[in-house]
Amino acid sequence: MTLALETTTGLTVQLRLSDDWFEVCGLDRMIPGRGVAALLPDGRQAAVFTDRAGRLYAIDNRDPFTGAAVLSRGLTGTHRGRPFVASPLLKQRFDLETGRCLDDDTVHVETYEVKAA
């Protein structure tokens, strides 16, 4: 579903954690192509993104190659129709839907179910 910016007021971005939803921020605070880092209740971080079509994605914010919590600061794009974020450190690309590293098939990051409600 694509949401026009003017219809996002009052909606929040939420991640599924176990059996409950965790509120990250207001949807109107998201900028297409830019990430937001969210501190989760267990101390981990998630990187949340929206694209120009209004689709939401959430992955682990930790770069598995360096251990740094930086994926929310990465550059977004598409490769063969798949949305990705490139780590700002070593530039490995992670599929935003599956968490798979596009540059090393043996590496992946966790993904989260995400919604606007």
TrEMBL record:
Domain Rieske: residue ranges? 22-117
- Ranges in coiled-coil conformation: none
Does the keyword section mention Iron?
yes
Superkingdom in the source lineage: Bacteria
Q: Which UniProt keywords apply?
A: 2Fe-2S, Iron, Iron-sulfur, Metal-binding, Nitrate assimilation, Oxidoreductase
- Cited PANTHER family: NITRITE REDUCTASE (NADH) SMALL SUBUNIT, PTHR40562
Protein name, as recorded: Nitrite reductase small subunit NirD
Which organism encodes this protein?
A: Streptomyces lusitanus
